[in-house]
Amino acid sequence: MPLLAGGLLELPLGVGAGEGKRRRLAVLAGGIVFVLTLLGVASARSFAVLLCAFVAFYPASGAFVSLTQAELMDTWPDRQAQVMARWELAGSIGAVAGPLLLTVVLASGGGWREAYLVLAVLAALAWLGRCLRGPRAAGMGTVAEAGTAAGARGEAERRPWTVRAREVLEALRDWGTVRWLVLLQVADLLEDVLTGFLALYLVDVEHLRPAIAALAIAIRLGASLGGGSALIVILERVGDLTVLRATAAAAALLYPGFLLVPGVAAKLAILAVLSAASAPWYPLLQARLYGSLPGRSSAAVTLSSAAALAGGLGPLAVGLAAQAFGLGWALAGLAVAPLAVLALAATARRT
Fold this sequence. Notes:
- The protein has helices at residues 2-10, 13-17, 20-43, 47-75, 80-107, 112-132, 143-158, 161-172, 175-204, 210-234, 240-260, 264-278, 281-291, 297-311, 313-325, 327-332, 336-345.
- By secondary structure, it is an all-alpha fold.
- The protein has a single domain (2-345), classed as Growth Hormone, Chain: A.
- The longest helix has 30 residues, at 175-204.
- The two termini are 40 Å apart.
């Protein structure tokens, strides 16, 4: 319900917020609701309150996080892949820091409620930093170029929401945009969806101890962090499409190897390399999505939200397949993900 109901509430954010001052106000308002939802989870004393807080979290996150991402893409139109690589690295750091934070809270005698309170404080600090940071002009060029960019932003701010809605519909008729939307959700099968089923697979199918499964999750998160860090350096020397194709080809070999290889050490080693190889997918594909919609980042936000709603059926599909055929065969089906990334990325042209 949080995914579906919250996702539907998030859907019109990109079109409604637009650009410029209106978007900035939407980001700041979303940040306030973001903090309040974390406080709501921490203080919830009933399932209904908890559910409402998680539903509200989706549109709040969309306004606070996704619109900030869109602003960064507008600010650096010629370095979108590099900026997205840094964005994803920040997310990977958070993914690693989250379990460590929970460990510290539990070791201090707290529980999950206290952990959410800490997250609310950190989110409030991020919101305060966003308030103190003024809007930055896109295009770091001459005074004339800055004036042209300012005029373009002013024109974008004056566009009615109906124009931005038409841009979304037009983008859906463009294969260059649809390709990246599809790939974002396909790639997620070998990223978040696999992570969600990984511990269960190792314990239930491979019959490993829960401690080994926990270690595998830690290795996966750490390797993803390493892969994201390396991507920042690699993109200064190698094109994004080259990286995307090379990592997809590697994952197409590594993932079946992870499923088939015997022995704990070999399985964990392959998992580490696989996790590092798939780490660049989201930032590169998301940057390509924005690049396919120059000057229309609002449309990219809305389309990303809509695609995420459809992609949310991925875990359900894996679960139903696992119920019918077993979890091992269900996860084996995810081997199509790197092949699809490789095939569709091969049709893209360098820009």
